[in-house]
Every structure is written in C-alpha cells, then in structure tokens.
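Predict structure. Chain length: 148.
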Amino acid sequence: MRSALMSLGLAYPIRFVTGYAVAVLVYIALAALAQEFPSNSFLKAVTENQALFILAVGTLTAFGKTLVRPMVGSDNVSAWLEAIEFTLDRANLSKLQRNLIWQRVASKLVESIDLKRELSRERLQSSAEEVIKESAAQDGGEPPAPES
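Prediction complete.
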C-alpha cells in the first residue's frame, strides 16, 4: 500500500497537492464552459471523464517538470552534496580550502558516475571519505574538527 501511495507522488506532498489543486480548478473552469457550450465534444468528454481528467492533468502539473528534465543525478547524490555542504559550513575552512574540496568532490563524482545506473549510497560515501582523506594528506594534517 505504501509503495502504491509513493508511486502516486505522496513522497512530495506540496508538489502533489499543488498539482491536483490546479487540476481541479481547471476541471471546474472547463465544466463551467461545458454548460455554456454543450455541443463542444472536447468539453463534453472532459466532464464525462472527470476522474481521469483530474488524474492526468494533476499528474502532469505536479510532476511534468521531473518527467521532461534531464536526469543529472539521483536524489541520493543531491542528499550527499547537501551533507557535504553542511559539513563544510561547520568546518571553518577558508574559501580556498572549500573550493579545493569542492573541486575534488566534483572530479570524484564525475569519475564515478555511470550514466546507465544510479550511484549507490555506499559508493558516494566512500568517494566523499576518500576526498576528505586526500585533502587532509595534501594539506599535511587532519581535517579540522567540526565546531560544537
């Protein structure tokens, strides 16, 4: 049941609600037009297939951008990049050190991306740990401890 609900888009509640709210509003407008123009076959078909119309328009409105955009990486990659950014924010590094680490992270990601399948969490985590270790070795010491 849970996987069925997730496949309907409930993992993104704001996007889901917005998409289907727009679909309902469009349906209401088309139903009002159907009252004014009863001979129009398109408006008649929309009002006869209310659930199908709302489902189709709601899905396209909510997830249309994700359906047509090019896939750069998975949500796991985005989550790891946000985690690295958070860690760097707490590490008190100079701008140059941050840029060097991001350059290394980017080069490791580019090296490890396989366009035919997603990166696994373990692979990305090991790449991030490897970059941090290499950075510490090149800087001649341990990476700074995060502030508490």
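Summary: The first helix runs from residue 2 to 10.
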